[in-house]
Amino acid sequence: MDIFLDEPLSKYTNTKTGGKADILAFPESVDHIQQLVQYANENQLSITVIGNASNLIVRDGGIRGLTLILTKMNKITVHENVLIAQAGASFIETTKVAQANSLSGIEFAAGIPGSIGGAVFMNAGAYGGSVQDVVVSADVLTPDDQVLHLDKQELDFGYRHCSVQENNQIVLAATFELSHGSRDKIQKEMDHLNELRAAKQPLDLPSCGSVFKRPEGYFAGKLIHDAGLQGFQIGGAQVSKKHAGFIVNVDKATATDYLNVIKHVQATVKEKFGVNLETEVRIIGDNE
Ligand SMILES: NC(=O)C1=CN([C@@H]2O[C@H](COP(=O)(O)OP(=O)(O)OC[C@H]3O[C@@H](n4cnc5c(N)ncnc54)[C@H](OP(=O)(O)O)[C@@H]3O)[C@@H](O)[C@H]2O)C=CC1
Ligand SMILES: C=C(O[C@H]1[C@H](O)[C@@H](CO)O[C@H](OP(=O)(O)OP(=O)(O)OC[C@H]2O[C@@H](n3ccc(=O)[nH]c3=O)[C@H](O)[C@@H]2O)[C@@H]1NC(C)=O)C(=O)O
């Protein structure tokens, strides 16, 4: 198993920002994760799990203790209409495997750049679909190193919410129940959604997806757009000129630049429209 010390996380985050991990490990099996959790518990190290870092800002001070990236646990298996994906599998790859097996239901995720673990953790959604519509159960590891099989009810999905968040569990794998469909039709729907995404979102620049949650009754992107903030920039982090709900790294941004732009956007939208924008991105790690 690969383990790195003092490893810059900017190499792994989609924003290309963030400080160093004291210890960064790439486990290849549940056994590896259990060994790492045991080691961390014995040495009183905190544990942080990162998926594809597509909806994440790691502060410039980095992450103490042990950080895990699960991309080496990426097996996807299919039995009839049931698809099981390990936590480190990419969501996009999972949609391709479903399509190849004529399975319909996760077309909505064709362009979601996260991992299966991150997608369950955040109850990922786009274009009217979300993880809760198709996931029937997940295997998780508890902080005291026990593997649990949780059904959908126990996962307690809500808007960008899942019970894994407050129980500090690590998602190991997820089971999806899909329906049989036509391979061509599934592919067409995935292509269509990817075209919509490419037309609206700044996919050509580093970002962390939608920075803010949808406030009830509003769209974050529209509020930021109407506040005249598109193009607003601090350091190398800029409110996207293409989609105001994104902050793009246009010139060697730091995580601090991102956080300063977020603060300014929140204050401006509050002042102009009286709406509180809550971050959807996870912000983790220490200040510099
Ligand atoms: N709709 C869209 O177009 C887009 C949606 N997204 C969303 O963001 C999600 C982020 O996914 P991803 O990039 O993989 O995640 P990230 O690496 O961005 O991690 C986000 C958080 O997820 C938690 N996490 C990740 N993997 C696991 C795991 N195996 N077990 C437990 N917790 C985990 C971590 O929580 P902690 O810090 O507490 O350990 C982490 O802080 C996507 O799946 C999707 O929901 C992202 C971009 C675009
Ligand atoms: C990118 C993410 O998810 C995305 C997901 O891909 C898309 C597609 O379904 O819908 C959400 O974006 P969104 O709420 O910004 O949806 P969009 O349809 O792009 O925009 C909403 C509305 O705001 C308007 N809008 C958007 C951007 C902008 O600069 N100006 C503007 O006026 C749009 O015209 C539209 O009327 C998800 N974000 C949230 C917070 O719900 C993510 O979670 O990281």
UniProtKB/TrEMBL annotation:
The active site is at 160, 210 (proton donor), 280. Its EC number is 1.3.1.98. GO terms for biological process: cell division; cell wall organization; peptidoglycan biosynthetic process; regulation of cell shape. Pathway: Cell wall biogenesis; peptidoglycan biosynthesis. Its main location: cytoplasm. Signal peptide: none annotated. One of its GO terms (molecular function) is UDP-N-acetylmuramate dehydrogenase activity. Residues 17-181 form the FAD-binding PCMH-type domain. InterPro entries: FAD-bd_PCMH, FAD-bd_PCMH-like_sf, FAD-bd_PCMH_sub1, FAD-bd_PCMH_sub2, MurB, MurB_C, MurB_C_sf, Oxid_FAD_bind_N. Cell wall formation. This is UDP-N-acetylenolpyruvoylglucosamine reductase.
